[in-house]
Automatic annotation (TrEMBL):
Residues 100-207 form the MotA/TolQ/ExbB proton channel domain. This is Protein TolQ. The chain crosses the membrane at residues 13-34, 126-150, 170-192. InterPro entries: ExbB/TolQ_transport (IPR050790), MotA_ExbB_proton_chnl (IPR002898), Tol-Pal_TolQ (IPR014163). Belongs to the exbB/tolQ family. Its main location: membrane. It comes from Geobacter benzoatilyticus. It is found in: Cell membrane; Membrane. It is a multi-pass membrane protein. Keywords: Cell cycle, Cell division, Cell inner membrane, Cell membrane, Membrane, Protein transport, Transmembrane, Transmembrane helix, Transport. The gene is tolQ. The keyword Repressor does not apply.
Length: 224
């Protein structure tokens, strides 16, 4: 069992930093696992409900059932903009969502793009910390190891003995920093790659939904 009480101040500081990165990373991993799982699951349920329901107002009244899906935010923004255009069209005695005067379909497209950007930002929040952890903690750990080995050799020089009993404890304690750096980095990198993939899938789903929403609006207008 290694006794770290005898390690230098710098190595102890390095270990505290690595432990901080590891603890925060695991907290983010558990939080994002729950968030991304709910987003994917409820998005699938929402799409199924959306295509089975024939009216936008009926879908809008049930959005609370899919509160964790980013698609509900897109639908809500798109539907709100559509209602606003319809109300303006009614005031002008003739509904023309394609009108350039009202902003038309492009206003709905902009609302969907804004909502998509907002949801991507929300989904990617904290994920960059995992990338930072994965890229920096091995080097922080290596720095602690190098510093610890320097102190170990300094101790050897002062004691005048290079026996294994003198060298081994200092070097083994120094190597702990590298080990903890890797322990912090490996799960963070794996989680980062996993979340990036899942978020890309959600982004593609949001883009497809926006396209379908606009197509439905355009087809509806064309029938009028």
């Amino acid at each position: 069992m290694l006794h770290l009480a005898g390690t230098g101040l710098v190595v102890k500081l390095v270990l505290l930093i690595l432990i901080f990165f590891s603890v925060v990373s695991w907290a983010i991993i558990f939080f994002k696992l729950l968030q991304v799982y709910r987003a994917n699951s409820e998005s699938e349920r929402f799409l199924d409900f959306f295509w089975k329901t024939k009216r936008f107002d009926a879908v809008n009244s049930q959005l609370d059932r899919f509160a964790n899906s980013p698609l509900t935010v897109l639908f809500s923004e798109g539907y709100s903009e559509l209602k606003r255009l319809v109300e303006k069209g009614d005031q002008k005695e003739e509904l023309d969502i394609m009108s350039t005067e009202l902003g038309g379909i492009e206003n709905i497209a902009r609302a969907l793009r804004r909502a998509t950007t907002s949801e991507i930002t929300r989904l990617e929040k904290y994920v960059t910390f995992l990338a930072t952890t994965g890229s920096t903690t091995p080097f922080i750990g290596l720095f602690g190891t190098v510093w610890g080995i320097m102190n170990a050799f300094k101790g050897i020089g002062e004691s005048g003995s290079a026996s294994l009993a003198v060298v081994a404890p200092g070097i083994s304690e120094a190597l702990i920093a590298t080990a903890i750096g890797l322990v912090a980095a490996i799960p963070a990198v794996m989680a980062y790659n996993h979340f990036q993939h899942k978020i890309k899938v959600l982004i593609a789903t949001m883009d497809n939904f926006s396209t379908e929403f606009l197509n439905i609006v355009q087809r509806t207008v064309a029938k009028k």
